[in-house]
Structure formats: C-alpha cells, structure tokens
Design brief:
binds guanosine-5'-triphosphate; 25 helices; alpha+beta; 6-stranded antiparallel barrel
C-alpha cells in the first residue's frame, strides 16, 4: 500500500524515468526499473533530491540507521529506531483524537508565501494531507534532529518549497486535491465533505499532525478515507497557476459583492455552500465545474411565457433543471424537464427561488407586429352593420326565427337567388344591413369568445312565450353578460294560445333582465317565427341598438376577420366562413388564419355570388387556405406570403410543442397505473349523455361500480354534448375523465380537451362504457405478456456426469444468469430447446446468479444434448397491463 512507481513520480515531476531511476539508485533505494515502487516518503525525498539535489537532514541511505521521531500527542514523542528507512520500518503515528495541531491554521496565505518562487531558503516540502479525516502535516526540518514533526504553525513561514513544491501522495485517481494545495482547511471542508463530511469535521477538531514520512506505516490505521487516490504534485512556483488562482479569487470576490448588493439570499443551504467559492486551486475538471456553479447569477425578476416548460423556466431563473424538478418533487408534483408548468407551479417556484415572475402571453410574440386594434382615426371610420347571434333554450325557436328572417330577406331579393351557406347572412332593413350568425346556440358564441375573437355585437335571446325561462335561457344570458354584449329578448311563439309574454318578462326580471316597458334597460320584442309577426320590429330594434352602439370600422385598411365555421369542401379545399371585423378583404390577399395561411382565391357571399372584395361585417366563405382553420380563429391580412407562412409555422410549432408536453391531467393509461398502485382512491368522472334516460341509467350503474379501494365519483352529469365548461370542470379536478354517451365532442371542444390534456371517451353502447370503467377500477384487463431476455451464456465445454446429466461449462456473455430462470438452448441461431436452468454452479458451489464475464456450470431441466458452441439464453415473462 501507499507505494508509488518511479515512473509515476517521474511523470508528475516532469523528469525522465531513467534520470529518476538513477537518482533513486544513488540514494540507495531498492529499485531496478521504472515500475519499481518506493514508499511515499522516499518518493518525496527522491523528488527533492532529483530536482534540487538536496536531501533531508539526517537522511541516511538504506543500510544506515535512521532515527525517526513521531509525535503522537503534543509534546509526547515516541522514538523508535529502525534499521532501514524502508516502508515497513517507518514509524506509525496513530491519529489520536487528542492530537493538537490545528491544521485549519494552514491558511491560504501561508501557503502562498511558501510558494513564492523567489524563495531562496533551503528547499523544504510541506505536506498537508487528509486521510480518512486526519490532517497530516509533514515537513522536512532543517534541524539536525531526525525527521521530527513539530507543530506546523510554529514555523510555517520558514518553510520554503522546492522548485517542485511537490507533494506526492498517490495517483490512482485524479481525486480532488486535498493535500498540498493552497487551501485553508476551512475552505477545503465543503469540498471534502462531499465525501466524508463527518470525518473531516473530526479531523478539523483533532488537528492531527503527523510526519508524512511515517505516512505509510500509519496508513494501516488511518488510510482508506480517500482510498488510494491522491498524487498531488503541485509546483507552487508556477506563475501561471498562481496568477490563475488570483484571478479566480478576484472574480469570486466580485461575484460575492454583486450578490450582496442584490441582497438576495439563496436559502440556507446555499449559504452553507458558499465557502466553496473561496476555494482557490483545484485541478482540471473539478475546477471548471465549480467555476460554473460560482458564476451563477441570481435572478430576481423574470418575464416568462404563460406556457413555460420546466427547462425553460430553469434557464430563465438561472437554476438547474434538477433544482426546479426537485422543488416540485418535494411538494409531490412530478414533472419532467419538458413538461409545461401550471400557474400554481410557477408561483411555487417563484416563491422558492425568490424570483418575481411576470407571465406574458407567448402568443403575443407570434402576433402580428402591425396593430390591427390600434385606435383608428375617426375620419377613417365608417358605419358598419351589426353582427347578431341568436341564443336561447332548446326548441324555443332559434332556427325558425333565423329562417324566418332569412326568408324575408330572400323574398325581398329577386326570385331564384340561391343561398350559399357561409355561416352567417345579411339582411337589409330600411336600407341598412344586419348580419346574422347562422349557428345558433351559445357554444359557438363562447367558443369564439374564449379565443378572444368576439364577432358578435348584439345577442338575441329567444324565449318561447309558452315555455318561459329555461336553464339554457339563463346560461345564454350569463354568457352574453359575461361577454359584455348587449342583448335583446325575442319572445317567440306569440302565435300560440298559451303564449304568456308577461310571465317571460317576470321570470327574466328575476334574473336581472328587466324589460324596458317595465322600467328596465332591455328591449323585449314579441315575435312569431311561424307567422312572421314582430320580425320587422325585431330588426328595427336591432338597428336602433346598433345606432346607439355606433358600430364603425375602417374599410380602407387590411382586413381582419373571424372564422365562424370551417370545412373541407370537395373541389375547393379548405373553406373558412368568416365575418369581416375591420378593413376590406380582397381576392389575392395573403392571410394568416390561426395556424393556417394562404392567398385568397375566391370570396363567396351568402347569396351564392362571388365577390372581389368585402368590407366590414360582411359574411363570406373564403377559399385558398392551406388547411382548415378552427372556428374562432382570427384572419389577418399580411403583406407577403412569406410573412404569413412563417408566422403560421411558428404558431404550429408552438402548438406542437405544447401538445407534446406531458399533460397535467391523466390519460386513462395513467389512471390505470395509479389505480393499480393504489394511489387513486376515487375516479372523478363527468358524464354527458344524449338523453336523460341513458344518463340516469349510466349514472346508476356507475355509482354501483366500486371495489374496496376505488369508487366512481360523478362530479358532473348532464344531457347534451361535451362543452367547454365540462372541460373547465374536468380541468379543475385532478385525474378526471369525461365520459360521453351518444354524444360527440365538436372540433373545438376536442381541441380544447387536447390542449388541457383531458380525455373524452365516447360510447354508443352503455355496456362498453361500463366495461371500460369497470376494467379501470378493478384492473381487470388481461395483461399482455412480453418477454425480457435476462442473460446469455456461451457454452465452452460440456461434462457428462453419470446419473446427473450434462453440465455445460459456460461463460456469461450478457446480463445475469439466474438459477431457476426460464432458459432456452440456441444452436447456430436456432432455438433447440426451451426449459429452465435446473442447476447453476460456480466452482462446484451452487450459485444464485452469475454475472456477465464469469464462468459457471449450467444444467438445463430435462435436456442433456448440450454442445460446445451452444448459447444458453435466460429470459423472464413481463406482464403488462392492457390500457384502454
Ligand atoms: N307555434 C310556433 N311554433 C314555433 C315557433 N317557432 C318555432 N316553433 C316550433 O318550435 C320547435 C322548435 O323550433 P326550432 O326553431 O327548431 O327551435 P330551436 O331553438 O332552433 O331548437 P334547437 O335547434 O333544437 O335548439 C319547432 O317545432 C318549431 O316549428 C313559433 O313562432 N310558433
């Protein structure tokens, strides 16, 4: 132990092997070649001798008697005579706890002095070494006394370093420099403590001082703390190292100052880590690593996009991804570096890292530089038609009313006009146009609003006079009010005998919609979609309201429009039904619509005619986009096709990245796993069904579904399609699933579900639905069994043992061969037999497993025809739960 080869010393000292070997021989060391070893002590002597020609006082060549004194305790010396200075004969200094030299006093300053290149004093080597938490201070004394150790702080300044200033300990690993570096023990501690914090602390307390010359002999007692790892050969006179060190020191000081000024603490843990920053000299990679950590600047405020991934956040706040994940993990949130952070998570992280976080909409970046919503000069504005959406409870006559208004318009026009479905249409009343959005219901309305693309100016709430206010009436009113859009109430079915408009007024007044003739602020218009009664009144009321609103737009600018519907039409490709919000759209314009783009090839109006250009509030179907855009997407005209293409690509890329991110909501696969692990105690579901009957049936059955661990928790149920509010609800409850029966989510809802990471499962057969949920809850799905190869062994020779059978002498070539595992015999790539490992032996001993690279004896169950060159492969079956 603790011997070092001549060639290693030569390497470190920068001498040739031959030279060093000669010198070693001169000193009488027992060496023959470069790979001969000598003790660490002798190595030190040799290097000094080779470099400076000096020998420690009292050095005697082997054969002569040496007298070595060891300080065991302060003032307690033990003398021991040895016949030779060979490794074994040297004196052991046990690192007693009470040893008193406080090595922490070996400070950086002292060391720097020692290394001063102009030092002319006799060379001496000062060695500071920590082994298993023991500080070892060694030196060559200038006294005549045998190599005796005194308290290092007594005369440390007097020690000069040889040109090499070399400290040799060991070389096996390029371990962090712990010895003979210009590090005060205090500074060294955090570094060392990475490995042996406790022992280092002890060492500091004990401050043991031991002659390095006794190193070997003492190693028997105290070695192995750092193993055989250190060879530290530092030339302190090296100007570059010194300067480098000073530079780093300076840099650190500056950074520390900066931090202080910033006044930002990084938490206690960090503070405790700081002493590292003072570390002066480290070698190679280690030093680099710490420099990196040290250059970390504390970020105090940062602007991040609303949708930020873990690694992006880490970058922004100048933290490692690990730190970010760690903080969330500690709070039970599992994220990977590519996951998007939720608002809550961002908040937590901001607090933890003491960073002020401002979230910005990432799409702002992707918005068009030209501000379409900028204040228009009044002079450029012209009156534009109002855009109307009709909403109301089911069967109260929305479609009938729209049809009636449209027919009246068509009738007004010349006969034979073929109407084109463009998602909206225009009628004319008193020479003024009114645009009606063709898709009644608040889904489309809300959809558009949720995308910030409000196209509607006025909402007509249809209430059947014979039915009164119903749930969807209320919902529609809430949506309208939330959007800040004025509403007009159309009391429909006035032709019916049972019509009771006062009842409608009374009911609506209860929910804050008071009729104007009752002293309120809302216009109520009695109509009949069947007879056409009140339609004119309704249109006039709309125009009046529009006038009050002073709806205006600038037709002389590039167009901005909103998509109300879109589809893929045979012969036309993607078609978007749009309503122009501002400006004028021309055939040939380059447009971006959400993530799609293109050049307008054709504009079709609601009367079936083609137009070259259309102005504000005009509905039309446009052709020329590369893909089908989404309802609610905004169309914007840009100057060049390059611009629109690039922006569309950026937006698409953004969406892709977002979709790729792991959702915060669980898919059914994840749920299955969570249930299997017993982590999920109840399965929150939202049920939507086509009719009340099936809803009740499903609800009843689901409520009965439960086992000991898990039950279904119906958080919401309803008749009708899956809506955005269902998704909002699902989004709010962890691990929820939306189950639909005989309903299909619309494109937009589907899209949102994808965005939110919510799984919508739809069924047409109740039993399928129940089966899925049952399987989910009970983990009853039959598992898929796949195979995993665990090891392979090459048959080197075979032994036939009497009654036992054939034993294959093998060498494991891959993995691990385990006793009793399933195995197959492969000959020339063909599977000959499949059974299991009946016996596995290593050196005649039964073995449980034999690892790659080792030899073993294998017997296969019921198979003896094993030949040299065969391969035995072991494998196991892996069960995988089937996912839904
Ligand atoms: N008597 C009478 N019946 C009407 C009137 N308006 C609509 N209806 C009838 O009411 C029923 C529903 O009319 P729709 O126009 O389909 O009602 P809706 O609100 O569009 O219904 P959904 O599209 O299902 O939401 C139909 O049978 C219509 O014929 C009306 O003014 N008078």
């Amino acid at each position: 132990m603790d011997k070092v080869k001549i060639q290693e010393i030569a390497d470190e000292a920068g001498l040739s092997n031959a030279d060093l070997l000669d010198k070693a021989k001169e000193l009488g060391f027992d060496v023959k070649a470069a790979n001969s070893t000598i003790s660490m002590e002798n190595a030190g002597i040799l290097v000094d001798y080779a470099i400076s020609g000096t020998l420690p006082k009292g050095f005697k060549k082997p054969g002569s008697k040496a007298k070595i004194t060891v300080v065991k305790k302060k003032e307690e010396t033990v003398e021991k005579k040895v016949s030779t200075p060979s490794d074994e004969s040297e004196t052991v200094a046990k690192p007693a706890a009470e040893t008193t030299v406080d090595t922490s006093k070996v400070t950086i300053e002292e060391k720097v002095e020692e290394v001063a290149p102009d030092s002319t004093e006799k060379p001496a080597v000062k060695k500071v070494k920590k082994r298993k938490g023991i500080s070892v201070v060694s030196k060559k004394t200038e006294t005549e006394a045998p190599a005796t150790i005194e308290e290092s702080e007594d005369k440390p300044q007097k020690k000069t370093l040889s040109r090499g200033g070399i400290k040799i300990v060991r070389k096996a690993k390029p371990a962090p420099v712990r010895a003979a570096t210009k590090i005060s023990m205090d500074e060294q501690t955090p570094y060392v403590s990475k490995k042996k914090p406790k022992k280092v602390a002890e060492a500091r307390d004990s401050g043991t001082k031991i002659d390095i010359f006794n190193h070997d002999s003492m190693s028997g007692d105290i070695d192995s703390g750092f193993g055989e790892e250190e060879v530290v050969l530092l030339d302190f006179s090296d100007k570059n190292i010194y300067e480098d060190m000073m530079r780093q020191e300076q840099k650190r000081k500056e950074e520390a100052k900066k931090r202080e000024l910033a006044g930002v603490g990084t938490g206690k843990g960090k503070q405790a880590f700081r002493p590292q920053q003072k570390r002066s000299l480290k070698r190679g990679g280690k030093r680099k690593k710490y420099e990196k950590a040290e250059s970390t600047e504390v970020v105090t405020s940062v602007e991040i996009p609303e949708n930020v991934r873990v690694y992006e956040f880490a970058e922004k706040v100048n933290r490692s991804v690990g730190e970010v994940i760690g903080v969330l993990f500690a709070l039970g949130m599992m994220v990977t570096k590519n996951d998007f952070l939720s608002k809550d998570e961002i908040e937590i992280l901001a607090e933890e890292f003491e960073v002020e976080v401002t979230t910005v909409n990432p799409l702002d970046e992707l918005e068009i530089a030209e501000d379409h919503d900028a204040e228009e000069d009044e002079a450029n504005l012209e009156e534009r038609p109002p855009v109307i959406t009709i909403m109301g409870h089911v069967d109260h006559g929305k479609t009938s009313l729209l049809d009636r208004i449209r027919t009246s318009k068509v009738a007004d026009k010349e006969a034979g006009g073929i109407t084109q479905h463009v998602g909206a249409y225009q009628v004319e009343k008193n020479g003024k146009k009114i645009t009606f959005v063709d898709t009644p219901g608040h889904e489309a309305f809300t959809e558009m609003r949720s995308r910030g693309a409000q196209a509607t100016d006025i909402v007509i709430i249809v209430v059947a006079a014979d039915d009164g206010v119903m749930p969807q009436t209320k919902e529609a009113i809430s949506h309208t009010k939330a959007a800040g859009v004025p509403l007009i109430v159309a009391i429909n079915k006035m032709d019916k005998e049972s019509a009771n408009p006062d009842n409608v007024k009374a009911q609506l007044s209860e929910i804050g919609v008071m009729a104007a003739d009752w002293g309120g602020e809302y216009e109520f218009v009695p109509v009949s979609a069947h007879t056409g009664m009140g339609i004119d009144d309704l249109l006039e009321t709309i125009l009046l309201q529009a006038e009050v609103m002073e709806l205006k737009a600038n037709p002389n600018r590039k167009a901005k429009a909103v998509v109300v519907e879109s589809s893929l039409e045979k012969g036309f490709g993607p078609v978007a039904n749009v309503i122009i919000k501002n400006g004028t759209l021309h055939v040939g314009d380059n447009v971006i619509v959400g993530k799609t783009y293109g050049r307008i090839k054709a504009i079709k109006l609601d009367d079936g005619s083609n137009a070259k250009e259309i102005g504000p509030s005009t509905p039309a179907a446009i052709v020329g986009l590369n893909e089908v855009p989404g309802a609610g997407d905004e169309l914007i005209v840009m100057d060049t096709d390059k611009e629109v293409r690039e922006l569309a690509e950026k937006r698409a890329e953004y969406d892709r990245a977002k979709a790729l991110s792991k959702s915060t909501k669980a898919s059914l696969d994840d749920l299955s796993a969570l249930i299997a692990e017993g982590q999920l105690k109840s399965l929150p579901v939202i049920i939507k069904a086509d009719v009340q009957g099936s809803l009740e049936a499903i609800k009843g059955s689901l409520e009965k579904l439960r086992n000991e661990e898990v039950k279904v928790n119906i958080i919401h149920e309803g008749v009708g399609g899956v809506t955005e509010s269902d998704l909002t609800l699902a989004d709010a409850s962890e691990h929820s699933v939306v189950l639909g029966f005989n309903v299909r989510p619309t494109g937009a809802v589907k899209k949102k579900a994808k965005e939110l990471g919510i799984e919508i499962r739809t069924y047409t057969i109740i039993y399928d639905l129940l089966d899925d949920v049952k399987a989910l809850l009970g983990g009853l799905m039959s598992p898929v069994i796949s195979e995993e190869v665990t090891g392979q062994a090459d048959v080197r020779e075979t032994f036939v043992v009497g009654k036992v059978g054939t034993i294959a002498g093998c060498k494991v070539s891959d993995g691990v061969i385990t006793r009793n595992s399933k195995a197959r015999l492969i000959r020339d790539g063909v599977v000959i037999y499949e059974s299991k490992i009946a016996s596995l032996k290593r050196f005649n001993e039964d073995a449980k497993e034999v690892k790659n690279g080792y030899e073993c004896g294998i017997m296969l169950e019921n198979f003896n025809d094993i030949k040299e060159g065969d391969v035995i492969e072991t494998f196991k079956d892996v069960e995988e739960q089937v996912t839904l």
